[in-house]
Design a protein that fits this description.
By secondary structure, the chain is mainly alpha-helical. The protein is built from 4 helices and no strands.
Length: 109
């Protein structure tokens, strides 16, 4: 008998949780060589729970993981400089290509 497959929504949620946990660890540790060890621990935790198919047990595991993530969230997460909220976001916006004043629309030929 094959194991029940999970919905695409569930898989997407687990991937999102995994990525958020990795991103949060990267907020705390800037050096990639140190972060890699922590990322492997997170991956091992997810792999350990990979074969759990009981919905109630899964809900409990995911709820605990969300609580752990919420408890460890960085107070000042890293934002890439050119992304919204970053230090260089819209600092030097390229000028528009359109004319500043449309003379043809105003009736000045």
């Amino acid at each position: 008998m094959s194991s029940p497959s999970f919905s695409a929504v569930h898989k997407s949620y687990v991937k999102s949780l995994y990525r958020r946990m990795l991103k949060n660890e990267l907020d705390w540790v800037v050096r990639r060589d140190i972060w890699r060890g922590r990322a492997m621990v997170i991956r091992a935790e997810f792999e350990r729970n990979r074969d759990v198919h009981d919905p109630r047990a899964l809900a409990e595991i995911l709820q605990k993981a969300e609580a752990d993530l919420a408890a460890k969230l960085h107070p000042d997460p890293y934002i890439p400089p050119t992304m919204p909220g970053g230090t260089k976001w819209e600092r030097n916006i390229p000028p528009t290509i359109a004319p500043i004043y449309d003379h043809l629309a105003a009736g000045h030929h």
